[in-house]
Design a protein that fits this description.
- With 155 residues, this protein is mostly helical.
- The protein is 88% helix and 0% strand.
- Helix 2 packs antiparallel against helix 4.
């Protein structure tokens, strides 16, 4: 197989995976933006609307939830970027090995070892960040709503 055919084949092979990763990253960008905006809204609430708020621990926990969701989303974005890069490397090596007429076994073993090491690093760093970020965000929203309702009712 020529280099051009391999590159074209690789692009076709990765397009659905790349689209899925791109959509996930777009979602994480939105979640990061929402977290940042909500943190700024909390600060504005405390400065302008509720200078002497009730249930201060509630707003602090809400602030921590939004901050945790922000951090988790950023970490998860890094992990999915590494995962996509690994998939591209893995499939490129497999395609390259498949297309060789007389494969060099020592090169194959070296590349296999490198890929196994990358896979182990990625799987060790993977937690369910996606769900964790969403739970932190939703908890923060619920606590913020409770805080606002309580403070409006007793103002």
């Amino acid at each position: 197989m020529s280099e051009e055919k391999i590159n074209t084949f690789t692009e076709v092979l990765y397009k659905p995976t790349y689209e899925l990763f791109r959509q996930l990253q777009d979602y994480l960008k939105v979640l990061i933006t929402l977290n940042t905006a909500t943190i700024l809204i909390i600060i504005a609430f405390l400065e302008k609307i509720f200078p002497a708020p009730r249930l201060k621990p509630l707003i602090m926990v809400s602030f921590l939830c939004f901050t945790a969701s922000l951090v988790v989303s950023l970490l998860f974005m890094t992990i999915i970027t590494r995962s996509l890069a690994f998939l591209v490397d893995l499939n490129s090596v497999l395609l390259e090995m498949w297309s060789l007429e007389s494969p060099d076994l020592s090169v194959r073993e070296q590349k296999r070892g490198e890929l196994q090491k990358k896979a182990k690093e990625i799987s060790l760093s993977k937690l369910n960040f996606y769900t964790l970020g969403n739970y932190f965000y939703m908890t923060g929203v619920v606590l913020l709503v409770i805080f606002v309702v309580v403070n409006f009712l007793w103002s």
